[in-house]
Amino acid sequence: MKVLTILCQKGGVGKTTFVVNLGKLLSHKGHKTLLIDTDPQGNVSTYLNFDKNSKEALNTTDLFENRLDKEIMKVSESLYLIPSNKSITKHSNEKIIGGSKLMKHKNFFREKGFDLILIDTPPTISSLTQESLTISDYYLIPSKPEFLAVEGVSQAMDFAKETINNVIKADPIFLGVVLNQVDTRRSSFQSFENELRFLLADKLFNSKISQLTEIADSPFYAKTVLDFNENSKARLEFIELSEEIFEKVGL
Known about the structure:
Elements: E1 2-6, H1 15-28, E2 33-37, H2 43-47, H3 60-64, E3 73-76, E4 79-82, H4 106-111, E5 116-120, H5 127-135, E6 138-143, H6 149-166, E7 173-182, H7 189-200, E8 204-210, H8 213-217, H9 233-249
Parallel strand pairs: 1-5, 1-6, 2-4, 2-5, 6-7, 7-8
Antiparallel strand pairs: 3-4
């Protein structure tokens, strides 16, 4: 079982879009995949048209409070969801003392037979993000190809390093940065990418996701890239990204 957290301290960079579409692609390949949402906004549920306040579904607050008697909800074939809602906010400023609350449930997830867990995080530096990193084997940072977005990448990397240094048994591997919402027609893009490549070397993914209307609109229609035409640019780019991620994590 592999656990991958998607994080960035800057909102609007596409974390939820990454989590949902990568999860859908993985499950389509036959991997039993679990999506965990640790963002109080619960955007993964919104994207998938699922009731984040369902009383029957195991949610992230239940995980933090050690209540595992509810059902992990099945979204589609081989794809499952643990949603989040505003109730998780009360845990956002807790210090991790005596070990991670999520880490204690890792065997629970393993016993359920999951091959991969993808975690969506809030766009803030909080214990919710720290908990996500603690249970993870890997983490990935999406970023817009903009100068100011580099600060968000830097903050996320620093926060991850701080978590690894200060939390017992936290040792996630940094997979790299993925450029999202890319417009190659912008004159500054190539210079920006070259500078990031210089700074990050092989930690900058070769795959990138373009700025496309179909991706931006897909949450409104509860669609993923698998619902797009087989030759659509969005679908092909996410497949390429998923294959690069799979190779890096050994799936």
